Each structure stands twice: as structure tokens, then as C-alpha cells.
Amino acid sequence: MSCYSFATLRKSPALLSLTATERHVTLIWKVGVMITAEKPTRTPRHIQTERGCVTICGPVEGADILRYQMDEGLCAFRLPKEQQEALAEIARLPEGQVILALHDEQIIGYVTFHRPEEFERWAHDQVPGMLELGAIETSKRWRGLHIGRHLLEVAFGEGALEPYVIIATEYYWHWDLKGAGLSVWEYQKFLESLFNRVGLRRVGTDEPDILAHPANMLMARVGRLVPQESVLLFEESLYQNRWMF
Ligand SMILES: CC(C)(COP(=O)(O)OP(=O)(O)OC[C@H]1O[C@@H](n2cnc3c(N)ncnc32)[C@H](O)[C@@H]1OP(=O)(O)O)[C@@H](O)C(=O)NCCC(=O)NCCS
Predict the structure, then answer these.
(1) Angle at 192 between CA 191 and CA 196, to 5 degrees
(2) CB-based contacts of 229: which residues, under 8 Å, 6+ apart?
């Protein structure tokens, strides 16, 4: 079923549970109706930039990710080739999604989503229906041309992420402060406002890695199709060391 069909059902209080396999999201409704959706493919977006036409599309299959060239300016987290392999791995994960920005068969940007890692407090078993925005990157050569903004808009568009609580754990040691020429606080502000555009908001937590530096942030967005039970579990998961206060 397409993501548009979700929209017609989104106000129903009858959602009982949400589970997912590699290719499908399954919503079980209290009324006994079961609805299955594929990892929803977004409508590709073509944008004109001063450096040429860029297409934003996805989720892209792992094998297809490996067929493209990787722009050498995609090196914020790993060497470009290693990052390309990491992207292909994420695409193969259950519920893993990789949205790409492409120019002339070359990957110039991406945003990824995957289930929270098992070692994190937001591991899938604890809060069902949760996805982590793992990374967003635009090639150094293509920054400031709104590629990042379009990547997020396409990823969050068409209701595709409404069944999920999306989190983004932002640690300042991952940020390209030097490349951006920004202070840690300026970078924090710029990322927060970029993520705000698609409804991700900063939330409080006592998660130790987030607390490790005041610039670190946890950002979250609760989709309109997330069952109330999952919202409560998520809210409970934010603070687990209440005895400290
Ligand atoms: C974060 C990142 C993906 C943004 O990509 P981008 O394609 O350059 O972003 P955009 O051009 O869409 O800019 C988005 C907004 O941020 C602003 N912005 C972009 N670069 C900026 C900078 N260096 N300083 C201040 N503002 C900046 C833009 O003006 C734009 O705002 P607007 O829409 O109001 O005009 C890119 O900087 C990057 O790859 N950084 C390294 C990896 C990283 O830090 N990822 C985030 C943590 S996972």
C-alpha cells in the first residue's frame, strides 16, 4: 500500500501495534484489520543548483548504492569508499532507509535512517516503531546549495515516516566545525534549525553521551501514526536516572 493510504487512517485511535520486516511495515488495528506497507519510495525531486541538476531519491537498495560513484567530498564520517559500503549496509537492514542526492550518477549527499543500535537505550525492543536519523551529509563541494534541506524534506515527505518516532543523537564530535568555519554553538544552532524544518525538536534526556557535552542534543519527532503506547514508552525512556535529581 502507498504511504498516501496511511493519511486516511492516521486519526484512528484503533492502532494496536506496529512491526516491521526488511521490506514491510505492518500495522495491526484493534478492529482486526491488518495493513502492510513497503518501505515507501519517495517521489524523486529534481533541483536546479548553480552546479547543475541534482536528484533526491530513495530509499535506494544496497546494490544500487554501490553502482554509483561516491563524491570525494563525502568524508565527514569515513573515507568516501568506506562510507559508501556503510550506506549499502544500512539500506539492507530491516527498516534501513538511505535517501540519496545524485548528480551525474554520483552520490553527492545522503541521509540515513535505521533502528537504534542494540546498545542504545532506544533499542528497538524497548520502544517499538522507532528509527534513528543516523547521519546526513552533503559533499564539501556541494554545501550551502540546499541539498541537505531537500534530502530531509524528501525523506520526511509523503507521510513516509509518520508511523515512526524519529530520533537524531547529535554529538558535537561528529560535526565538521572546521569545514563549516563555525563555532560549536553556531553549528549546534545551524543543525537544530535545519532539523526543525522537518519537525524534529530538541528534547531533554539524561542519556549519558548526550549529557557529556552541553552542545550535544537529542532531537525527536513523533509521527502522527505512532501508537500512544509507543509514545509513552519513548517519553519514559528519556529519563532513566531520576534518582539523580
Ligand atoms: C549538515 C549538512 C548536511 C548541511 O548540508 P547543506 O547541503 O550544506 O545544507 P543546506 O544548504 O540545505 O543548508 C540548510 C540551512 O543551513 C544553513 N547553512 C548551511 N551551511 C551553513 C553554515 N556553514 N553556516 C550557517 N548556516 C548554514 C543554510 O543557509 C540553510 O538555511 P536556509 O534554508 O534558511 O537558507 C552539511 O553541512 C554536512 O554534510 N556537514 C557534515 C556532516 C554533519 O555535520 N552532519 C550532521 C550531523 S549527522
Answers:
(1) 120
(2) none
CATH 3.40.630.30 fits 3-244, yes or no: yes
Q: How far, in Å, are 36, 78, 79, 186, 222 from residue 6 at the CA level?
A: 10, 36, 38, 38, 15
Could you state, in order of their start, the residue ranges of all structural domains in the chain?
3-244
Gap from CA of 143 to ligand 1 centroid (Å): 7
Residue 196: CB partners within 8 Å, gap ≥ 6?
A: none
CA 50, 54, 195, 133 torsion-angle sign: negative
Please report the beta strands in 22-74, taking only residues with DSSP state E, as ranges in sequence order: 24-29, 34-38, 45-49, 52-57, 69-70
Residue to mutate, 132, 138, 182, ligand 1, most ligand atoms under 8 Å from C-beta: 138
pLDDT tens digits, 75-130: 999 999 999 999 999 999 999 999 999 999 999 999 999 999 877 787 766 778 89
Length of the chain: 245
Task: Pick the atom of ligand 1 nearest to 149's CA.
Answer: 12
